[in-house]
C-alpha cells in the first residue's frame, strides 16, 4: 500500500491574470513567472519522488514544501529564513503558487536540520538533472 505523501500545505495553483490597476496588486509580481517555471520543471514533485524524507502522518509541511518556499525566497532576495517567510507573507504570491499555509522560520529551520548528508547529495544530483533538463529545453540542439 502506497503511503499518502501529498502535501497539506499546497494545492493546485490558480490561473493568474495580470492587471496594472485593481485589487490584489503585489510587489512580488516578478516571482510569478519563476513560480510557473519551477512548477513546469517539476521541482516540488521531483523533490518528493527523488529525495526520501519521512515525516509524521500529521506533518503539514514536507521537505519538498520548505525547499520550494526557500528557493523562491532566495530568488526574491531573502538572506535568512525569517526573510523567506516575509517574502511569502504576500497573499497574491501564495495564491499564485498554490500555497495554503506558510511555516514560520523556526519550522523551516527544524525541517532543514532533519536533512542528512545523503539527502543533500541526492538534492545536488537532482539539481544537476533539472539543470540539464532546462538546458535541453532552452537549447535548440
TrEMBL record:
It comes from the Bacteria. This is Transposase DDE domain group 1.
